[in-house]
């Protein structure tokens, strides 16, 4: 088995891989790319955009008083934006080619514009793939497509086909044909469609108020489609927020600021750069193809960028007043976990910290504020945070990061690069016409306290294994599968399975179940379950050395965990106060079992997966079915 560290060390970085798989470009030999050095880029100069600003939120295409209160007709198109990058040679702005969502007169942005919807308000959204040139021809994919992994592959044409896209509303309690599942993709004009394609999507928004987000989820190329810019915030608003705002207990816009944190790499011309590994095949330097037209291998175990972006800008600055701010933090990165502090100075853990409380998780408010000094947030997670700058006029605070990559036992942050996220400068006078807020003891004055989850109410416990295996090319391949044997048409199945293997998790409609995730890998994995909100029950160390290899055929190697060999080696650890609310994504730490409890309310097909995008694209995703 090839270790992640040795695999990454052996890879050869090439350029933006501008559609090297296309025959029309096969004779074009591009000059050697020049990576953009992050140390040449300005820090804390670019102004942070607030995604809740009226100009940054979606305007409905139509508004109605019927059951569907509004419709949104969005198109996905290519565009060029200035993110705040500078040419190191002359200081001039650099443009970056991106993909984004647009509608009517609202141009695409990066990140995408925000939805704001009141709870209980049903809307319909159509996402239309418009990745075409000015003559209506499908655009080639500027990202390095890897056809050696399971992917959408429209028309079975390999990477020659147009780009498949599908938007998933992450955190939504929606009917499965409105979920945005990996097989619901379409090519431009919906000429080619996945098996679960449907349009428009209906979002009931009947769930509790929370911070959702929408992003591309096409099978096998989620990581690159999101990398191109296809992600944005989706806020459901509820009665608790209204009451807390009315009682001066919760900051509102402009003192509510979403922070979408993403890492990227760029070339010296400002274009996005996504690393790949052509070294796994002996490429013909004259054509860019390996012998016998073998498709290029570009999938890597993880992606860690060297530019930290917040709301689309590298290392931005936000000028603030000496008051409380509500930060809606989203980790939109591919693989990077962040350990965040807000402190004076730029060295993580060395400065004086601004007081910080978590008041909510992805899908609702906590019962009470949870003070934190370090906020750990993995890809796909969101945290609702209050930061208090009261009495700090004239001071500056930096949001720092100290998380290793991979997390938690990988390489340390790079000083001056990945250890800094953004700056808050307390240099604006206090606007006394706007309420100054005081954090309340009760965050749920209308809906009432979240009950302590009761494991006895669950009707079944399922055990899932997380393993790092290898594929026939020797690449690390992260996988999921049942710990216990599950009946199937071909006989019992157990251990790691492929995405296309039959369903092994089949809860009944309305059932409450406990799912235990046994992480036998060396890294943490943020596991996301579509459809449901769940509560973390606890975590516990177990002896992961008892996991054995599983020959999956064709050169694929996965893993098995014998239920009789499970031995717990530590005490039961309850979740910390900051993650005690309703979640849809949670960190599963290495060598631990993480137990969560969820109720499955709707029938249909859904998926669960690791939200490290590079992992879900290469088999760390499984379907599950609710109901018959």
Please give a structural write-up.
- By secondary structure, the chain is mainly beta.
- It has a domain at 455-626: Sandwich (Immunoglobulin-like), CATH 2.60.40.
- The chain has helices at 4-10, 222-227, 239-246, 613-616; strands spanning 62-63, 70-86, 93-102, 112-118, 123-129, 167-170, 201-203, 210-216, 231-237, 256-264, 307-310, 313-314, 317-320, 324-331, 338-343, 356-361, 364-371, 375-377, 382-388, 396-401, 420-426, 460-470, 476-482, 512-519, 525-529, 534-541, 548-551, 557-560, 585-588, 592-599, 604-610, 621-626.
- It has a 7-stranded mixed beta sheet, with no helix packed on it. Strands 1, 2, 3, 5 and 7 form a 5-stranded mixed beta sheet that branches.
How is the biggest beta sheet arranged?
7 strands, mixed
Q: Flag low-confidence runs.
A: 1-30, 281-294
Strand content: 25-35%
- CATH architecture heading of one domain: Sandwich
The largest sheet has its strands arranged as 12-11-10-14-19-16-17
The global form is: globular
- Give the CATH topology of one domain: Immunoglobulin-like
Highest CATH level, the class of one domain: Mainly Beta
Structural class: mainly beta
Whole-number mean pLDDT: 92
């Amino acid at each position: 088995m090839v270790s992640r560290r040795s695999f990454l060390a052996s890879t050869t970085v090439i350029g933006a891989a501008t559609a090297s798989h296309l025959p029309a470009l096969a004779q074009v030999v591009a000059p050697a790319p020049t990576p953009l050095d992050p140390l040449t880029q300005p820090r804390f100069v670019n102004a942070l955009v607030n995604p809740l600003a009226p100009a940054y939120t979606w305007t409905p295409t139509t508004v109605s008083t019927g059951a569907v209160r509004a419709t949104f007709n969005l198109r996905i198109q290519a565009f060029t934006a200035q993110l705040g990058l500078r040419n190191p040679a002359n200081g001039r702005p650099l443009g970056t080619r991106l993909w984004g969502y647009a509608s009517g007169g609202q141009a695409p942005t990066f990140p995408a514009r925000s939805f704001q919807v009141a709870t209980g308000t049903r809307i319909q959204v159509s996402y239309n793939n418009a990745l075409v040139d000015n003559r209506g021809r499908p655009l080639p994919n500027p990202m390095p497509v890897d056809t050696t992994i399971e992917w959408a592959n429209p028309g079975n044409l390999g990477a020659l086909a147009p780009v498949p896209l599908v938007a998933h509303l992450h955190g939504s309690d929606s009917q499965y044909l409105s979920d945005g599942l990996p097989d619901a993709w379409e090519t431009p004009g919906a000429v080619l469609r996945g098996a679960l394609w449907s349009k428009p999507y209906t979002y009931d928004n009947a769930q509790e108020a929370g911070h959702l987000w929408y992003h591309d989820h096409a099978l096998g190329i989620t990581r690159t489609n999101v990398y191109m810019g296809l992600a944005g915030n989706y806020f459901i608003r509820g009665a608790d927020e209204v009451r807390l705002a009315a009682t001066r207990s919760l900051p509102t816009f402009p003192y509510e600021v979403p922070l979408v944190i993403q890492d990227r790499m760029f070339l010296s011309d400002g274009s996005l750069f996504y690393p790949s590994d052509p070294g796994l095949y002996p490429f013909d330097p004259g054509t860019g193809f390996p012998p016998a037209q073998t498709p290029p291998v570009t999938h890597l175990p993880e992606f860690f960028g060297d530019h930290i972006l917040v709301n689309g800008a590298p290392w931005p600055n936000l000028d603030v007043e000496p008051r409380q701010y509500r930060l809606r933090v989203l980790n939109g990165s591919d693989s990077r976990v962040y350990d965040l502090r807000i402190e004076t100075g730029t060295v993580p853990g060395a400065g004086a910290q601004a007081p910080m409380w978590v008041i909510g998780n992805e899908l609702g408010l906590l019962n009470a504020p949870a003070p934190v000094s370090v906020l750990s947030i993995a890809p796909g997670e969101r945290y609702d945070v209050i930061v208090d700058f009261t009495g700090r006029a004239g001071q500056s605070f930096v949001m720092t990061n100290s998380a290793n990559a991979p997390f938690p036992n990988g390489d340390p942050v790079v000083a001056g690069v990945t250890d800094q996220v953004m700056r808050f400068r307390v240099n604006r006078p206090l606007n006394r016409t706007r309420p100054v807020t005081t954090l309340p003891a009760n965050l749920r004055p209308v809906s009432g306290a979240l009950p302590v989850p009761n494991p006895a109410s669950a009707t079944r416990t399922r055990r899932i294994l997380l393993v790092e295996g290898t594929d026939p090319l020797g690449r690390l391949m992260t996988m999921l599968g049942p710990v216990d044997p599950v009946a199937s048409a071909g006989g019992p199945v157990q251990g790691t399975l492929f995405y296309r293997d039959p369903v092994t998790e089949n809860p009944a409609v309305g059932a409450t179940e406990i799912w235990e995730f046994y992480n036998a890998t060396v890294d943490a994995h943020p596991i996301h379950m579509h459809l449901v909100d769940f509560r973390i029950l606890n975590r516990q160390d177990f002896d992961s050395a008892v996991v054995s290899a599983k020959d999956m055929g064709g050169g694929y190697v996965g893993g098995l965990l014998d239920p009789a060999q499970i031995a717990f080696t530590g005490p039961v650890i309850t979740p910390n106060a900051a993650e005690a609310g309703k979640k849809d994504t949670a960190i599963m730490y290495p060598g631990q079992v993480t137990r969560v409890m969820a109720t499955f309310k709707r029938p249909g097909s859904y998926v669960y997966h690791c939200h490290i995008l590079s992992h879900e694209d290469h088999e760390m995703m499984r379907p599950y079915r609710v109901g018959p």
